[in-house]
Design a protein that fits this description.
The chain is an all-alpha fold. 64% of the residues lie in helices and 0% in strands.
Length: 88
């Protein structure tokens, strides 16, 4: 499951500011992803419902990540591709 850039920004923004969304994400991250527009079949195919609960970093951490994403630093780092070596 790949999130669009807009979905990534929406997710991190909500995790940095929205207490109700953070609570939903902690209790049922699949439903939280569906709430931001991820196709439910994609969520079901990639998340194990029995492993849904999670702990989150604080809002300030997500706010810092959001700032990096908005500045393009995060996108550039995530786009880096490791060189491939062919042996033999």
């Amino acid at each position: 499951m790949a999130l669009t850039q807009a979905q990534q920004l929406d997710l991190v923004q909500r995790l940095s500011t929205d207490d109700a969304f953070r609570s939903l994400f902690q209790q049922d991250n699949a439903q939280a992803l569906i709430a931001i527009g991820i196709d439910p079949s994609e969520v079901d195919n990639h998340l194990d419902a029995t492993q849904s609960a999670c702990a989150l970093a604080d809002k300030a951490t997500f706010a810092a990540v959001l700032q990096e994403m908005q500045n393009g630093q995060f996108t550039a780092a995530m786009a880096m591709q490791a060189p491939k070596v062919k042996i033999g």
